Structure formats: structure tokens, C-alpha cells
Amino acid sequence: MAEAHQAVAFQFTITPEGIDLRLSYQALSQIYLSGLRSWKKRISRMRNRVIKGVYPASPSSWLFVVIAILATMYMRSDPSMGLIAKIQEHLPVSSLSLSVQGQTMLSVLVFSTLLWLSLILTLRFCLKLLLSYHRWMFEQHGHISTTTKVWVTLVRLLSGRKPLLYSYQTSLPCLPVPPIKDTLERYLESVRPLLSGPGFQRMTVLAAQFENSLGNRLQRYLKLKALWATNYVSDWWEEYIYLRGRGPIMVNSNYYGMDFLYVTPTPIQAARAGNTITALLLYRRKVNSEQLTPSRVPGTVIPLCAAQCERMFNTTRTPGEETDVLQHWQDSEFVTVYHRGRYFRLWVYKAGRLLSPREIEYQIQRILDDPSPPGPGEDRLGALTAGDRVPWCAVRKQYFSSGVNKRSLDCIERAAFFVTLDDEEQGMMGEDPVGNLDRYAKSLLHGKCYDRWFDKSFSVVVYKNGKNGLNAEHSWADAPTVAHLWEFTLATDAFQLGYTEDGHCKGEVERSLPPPQRLTWDIPVEVQEQVSISLSVAQALADDVDCHVFPFRDFGKGRIKKLKISPDAFIQLALQLAYYRDRKTFCLTYEASMTRLFREGRTETVRSCSNEGCAFVKAVESGEGPEHCRRLFRLAAEKHQNLYRLAMTGSGIDRHLFCLYVVSKYLGVESPFLTEVLSEPWRLSTSQTPVQQLELFDMKNHPDFISLGGGFGPVADDGYGVSYIIVGEDMINYHVSCKHSFSETDSHRFGAQISRALLDLLSVLTPAKTENSQAQDKKQQ
Predict the structure, then answer these.
(1) At what angle do helices 525-544 and 433-446 cross, to 10 degrees?
(2) Is 574 left (phi over 0), alpha (psi -120 to 50) or beta?
(3) Those residues with Cβ within 8 angstroms of residue 413's Cβ, 6 or more apart along the chain or in another chain
(4) Which active-site residues does the annotation give?
(5) Which residues form the Carnitine O-palmitoyltransferase N-terminal domain (predicted)?
(6) Which one of 60, 513, 545, 648 is separated from 683 by 20 to 30 angstroms, measured CA to CA?
(7) How far apart are CA 384 and CA 318, in angstroms?
């Protein structure tokens, strides 16, 4: 209880002589410094609001406008064309008691301010119009039109020199609602290779009936929402796809990110945790102060929406009976740590100062050395977040809404993020590096089903041998946002913060730090029974997951780009070839594409299984000539790129149809067409994890610091989930998942098919050298 007494700023005792008041100056100092930090943050937020509010102009531009107006009037010219005089007439002169010169000056200031605000609105409107131009994306590489060159110049001029993280938000265009006719045509084209003749004819009739009857009515409601809402998709997508799901979010929704492949910066668990926690908090500081550079389309000046960063920290998903709720707090000065069945609150600030990495390591080591056992029912409490949502809601409402349980649960939910100190060793190591890499992925995806808090926006896992990783909840943001955070964390940990020669964090330790606070619980038998039920549900789900992670090292994007082909199109066509060889058929394929060119944009689906792609795969498998296969490949790659561009620019298929379906449910009408479309299974779900901050990694001097990327569970019970990350010029890392319960899928077999398909595609696209060209190569050597 020593730390509790230290936290009391003053104590008083009533005696016969009066009141005996004893002040704790140390505690008062802590309160003062903590309050000072809070006020500094408020002032910083107010300052950023002003800067964002006037963007793309700057606050100092107001002074420039005032001086320009005054200089013009000094030259006996009226730039306001009589407006300044009109303003002066309507000034409350009697209450202001100003001279004539003072009234004129005040009128000039009012006019200048109004003119300045008008210019800001005009500039913002012009920037929004410019950012609504997307033709640049459809132009061939190296063949940029004059219109696009002028457009790029104007965007650069209006973007300002140092925009804040959220500066572009009000200038981003809204996501447009595509014409229903175009969406239906693209849908029918996407399912043509998957349906038989009669099946396709039936879907064509259903689509035509939908368009001519219910479709246009639903479209009008959707256009009305698009006029009113910032984004006509995102709020419904978050609620109906994520928050209303009543099954476990572990595996089904959450995803993971992994550590470096070949390197572990330190083998000391506490030290790795110290640097990782510090790096994450430094990122949070950048987000809160909005000093993080806005993300852009790679290689361009085009900004992307940053709205997903707002709920990155201090956020949790709380269960409900019908729908979950995302709760976000403005700030948090602590993280919650789980170790060997016990929960701790670790304060990461003292007197408004962020603890040094060495101090956090010291505190983490205290937790590791704590010999106290878990309380009754405490060790597996996290299983409640891994099981079904409705039982977790009922238990939370009945047993965690008051008293000590509520206080401890609040500590977890209000924490900046969740940290698990795992007793296992993970990574590509030992006599079975391939199998250990797969076990590492499964550990991050679900762990023991009770040693992660799956409701937190993200949970960091630090293993006994110093390896780390994270598990992220999906509803608040998509993988690229979390990947950006994780890239910064890994790079800051390894290259900025660093370690001493003996593997410890750098910095000094203030030994007077109060120890981490153990959270206490009162877990009745009824809760323990529900924990066991949730754990059995989660364990069955975890045991069914088959994961395979492998680095493909034969070639990478460098070799692919020399063939003048998009690396993503190449990989997606290789996946089509691999799936066809694995299952002897084609399937509906999901590739995630972003729509962050628009305000509050999230994702859109690229239906990667196209007519052109299927024709190419069949040509390869039937042994057609190489020239014919190359021609078909070029057509398929160009088709894939066009589908990707359409999805990014708001002309996708699936989000539009999804929203039409939601409107139909609100209106209480049934559509056989929409019901069938939205029930189609995605047997191949794919996603690329982009490397967004290459400048943070020195691949030339530190080639071993290669990220493994991350992955997710299978979307369909009889399908595959495939995530891939293109690392450098010569490597592609793959994460393949499926379910053991379906006998016809196998992650290792499909991984081998992917590797084989990649090599076969390269051989098809690389013409065999003639004897003369080989002789010339020998002469040059």
C-alpha cells in the first residue's frame, strides 16, 4: 500500500485542538507536473485546430492580407470597392468610442479577415477539385499527359510546405456513388468465368430485374446519403461487417504483424519490451501532435485520408447484445501488461515525463520477477474476448459494471494499448525453422486464446527470447494503418533507440519509481464457467487454423519490373494459377484495395479472377506456345491493373452492392439478386501489406532487417487467406492460412503451388535465348 499513500496529496486529522493538516509536497508536485502536461497537450490541440482550420493557407497569411489592404489604402486606392466604408457605417460606434481613424482601422481588419476566410474557402475548394481528378492513375507509366503535369504542379502549389497529419481531411473529395448500370455490368463480367452458361444467364436476368425495379429506388436513397454523409460506405461497413458480428473476433477478424525475419535486436525480453513500448508511445506523440507526415500514394504528391489514425491508441471494442461499440479516450498515461495469468498497470509517464526505455525495461523486469500467483479465475479471463460476443456482453454487464472488477477492467480498456509478456520462444530458429515460423504466426494470431486482450485496438506480444509482434482488432482501421505504426516501431527500436553492448535499453533509471500496480479481481464461479465455455469455443477455432509463412527468395519486384509488369498483377496471376492447380477450378477472389483517396475511405474489393486471367491460366496448363501465353498474360495483367484503379477511384463493385443491400434491409424489401450476391463465398482472400516508410530502413547497410509483414485467418471454411509483402527488390514474404477441418485445403501444399506458379510465370515471360545471343553474352563476359 506504500504507493497508495504516496498518491495522497494531503491528509488531515481532526483533534480537540483543531484540524491537523499535513501536505505531501512530493505528491502535489506530481499533480502539478501532470496537470502541466495536460494543459500543454490542450494548447497543442488548439494550435493544431487553428492550423488545420485555415489550411491550405497559414495563420500568418492573415497578416499578409491585412498589410496588403493597408498598403493599398495608403496609396489612396480602395481594394474593397466600397465594402470597408459599408462596414464602417454598421459599426456600433457609440459603444466602441473610437476615433475616425480607429473606426477605419477596425473596418479594414474586419474586411481583411473576411477576405482571408473567403480565400481559404476558395483554395480549399480548388484543392478538393484537383484531388477529385483521377485520370492520372489510368495513364501508362512513362506517358504522362500535359493535363496531368499541370495538375501535379497545381496540387503541389496548393498543398503547402508542411501539412499536419489531418490537414488534408477537409480537402479530400467524398466517395462517389457509381451508376448502378456500370456496377451491374462489372459484376456480371466478374462472375462470367465462374458460372456455367445457364447459371450466367440466370444471374443476367436477376441483375436486369433488379436494375429495372428495386435497384433505382435503392440508388436514390444511397445518393441522398452520399450528399449528407462524409462517406456513404464507411459507417455501415464498420457496423455491419465488423461490430455486428456475434461470433469470435479472434482469427475471424483480428490479424497479426511479425518481427524482423533474420534479426532479433536483443535476446532480453524486458529490454525488447522497453524499446517497443517507447517506440509506440513516440508514435502516439506524433499522432497526437499531428507531426506525423500525411501518407501519400507511393511516388506521388497525392494525400491519403488519415482518419483511421484517430482511434489507434486508447481504444477498445466493448461487447453488446446486438452490436459492439468502439470506445476511444483522449489520452492514457499507462499500458496494461499481462504475464503468467496476472494483469498489471504500468505507468509510462512520471510528472508529465515519458519514462526512458531503460526505466520501462526496469519496470517490465519487476513484473517478470514478481512471484505472486494469479487470483482465482484471473489467469484465463482474456478468453472472454476470444469467444462469442453475446455471452461476453452478458457477463460484462452483470459482473464487471461496478466494484473492483470494473476498476480493473477500466484499466485494461482505457490503457494506451495491451502488452503480453509471453513465456514461449518464437521465430525462425532451431532445427525446424519452417515449422517454428508457422508456430510463430499462429501464436500471434491467437496465442493460448486467453493471454491476449483481443478487444484492444492492438496488443503487443514480447516473447521470452526477445522476439515481438502484434495482434490488431480490425473494426477501427485496416492493415496499412497498423503496418505504418509497426514499421515505425521496428525501425525506431532497432535504429533510433538501440541497445547497449550487453543487450539492455539505453538511458538512466530513477530507482524511486513506484512498482507496476497489480490489478485485482473478484471472479465468481459463474464467470469462471463462462470463461471455460468461451475458451473451449476459441480453442476449437484456433486448433482448426492451418498457417504457413514462407519467404520467397528466388526473385522479387526488381526482376518483375524489368519485364515492365506490375508486381501486384504478377503476384495475383500467380495466385490464380496456384489455386487452379490446387483445386482444379477457379473461384471468387478477394483482393483488398484502399479507397483512402476519399475522405474516411477504407477498402474496396478487386475481383482478381477475371476472364483474361482465366484464359491465361488455361493456356499455361494446356501447354500453349510461349508467345501466345505471353500475349494473354499482358492482357490479364492490364485487366487486373484496370480493376485495381477502378476500385481505388470509387468505381468498385462490392461496396456499392453492399450499401444497396443495407438500404433494402432498412426499407424492409427483399432482393433475390442482392441476397445471392452477398452470400457468395470468397474462397481465395488476398491482401498486400505495403512497405510505406522505406526511408526508415537502410536495406543496403542492414539487409538482414527485413520485415515478415503479417497475415490473417481464412475467410471461408473451404478457402485460403493469403497475405504478402514485397520486401526490397529480391524477396516476397507470404502468409497462407486455411482450416484443417476442410480436407481439400492445405497451407503448405498451397504455399508450394504459389512458389511453383511464380517460377513458371517468370519462365513464360522470359524468352529463351537463341544460340547467337548466348554466344554474344559469352563474348561480353
Answers:
(1) 140
(2) alpha
(3) 316, 318, 327, 455, 456
(4) 474
(5) 1-47
(6) 648
(7) 11
